[in-house]
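> call design_seq(struct)
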């Protein structure tokens, strides 16, 4: 069933959003401002680079907002051992959710075994520490078959979500990609649409396509658009 402005309030939409600041030049003040916005608006999480995990976890303490960070970001071209170590450190510093980038070359080469090995190593760390793993497949760099393969490998490896994009390698979330990802992973795995989501209408279209989480640096604008459209 499609969602429209009368059915999804700004507060409900906020629960879908990972409020994101991944710019490498982001300052402590900017990171803390994003954390404060997340608490004010009730976003699902704050997604920041690993260097800010402990800072954000402390800022969010006592709230329902999760601390999310990225692993192997933004290229996915680090070793599996490095990704697992990075995940361990992030979890120990207070991250609740880990968004890892796959081995993109393996996906393009059709190497399912390599993809599963890479993802599973991080999934095992995440789940041993009670954390959630989202797998960034970087749709802009993959063709149809490679997207399907990456999603299938994520399911096999025990991921909790698949995610469209880093936002750093061109492209971004599209309705078609989210529909494909949802069809591939089935109804139980999460699908995160990330990259270029800037408005209430963008977010609702992606949720209608099957997304259960939205990654965006424009979270406040998105829910504010919902406030202007909502009928309550």
């Amino acid at each position: 069933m499609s969602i429209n402005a009368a059915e999804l309030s700004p507060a409900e939409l906020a629960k879908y959003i990972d409020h994101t600041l991944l710019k490498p030049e982001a300052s402590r003040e900017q990171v803390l401002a994003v954390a404060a916005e997340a608490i004010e608006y009730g976003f699902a999480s704050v997604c920041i680079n690993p260097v800010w995990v402990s800072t954000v976890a402390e800022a969010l303490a006592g709230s329902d907002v999760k601390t999310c960070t990225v692993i192997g970001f933004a290229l996915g071209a680090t070793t599996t051992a490095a990704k697992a170590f990075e995940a361990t450190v992030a979890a120990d510093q207070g991250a609740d959710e880990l968004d890892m980038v796959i081995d993109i070359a393996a996906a393009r080469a059709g190497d399912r075994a390599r993809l599963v090995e890479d993802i599973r190593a991080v999934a095992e760390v995440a789940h041993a520490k009670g954390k959630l793993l989202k797998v960034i497949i970087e749709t802009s760099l993959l063709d149809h078959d490679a997207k399907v393969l990456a999603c299938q490998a994520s399911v096999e490896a025990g991921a909790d979500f698949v995610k469209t994009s880093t936002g750093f390698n061109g492209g971004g979330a599209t309705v078609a990609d989210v529909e494909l990802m949802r069809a591939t992973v089935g109804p139980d795995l999460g699908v995160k649409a990330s990259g270029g989501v800037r408005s209430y209408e963008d977010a609702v279209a992606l949720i209608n396509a099957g997304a259960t989480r939205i990654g965006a640096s424009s979270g406040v604008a998105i829910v504010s658009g919902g406030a202007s459209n909502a009928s309550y």
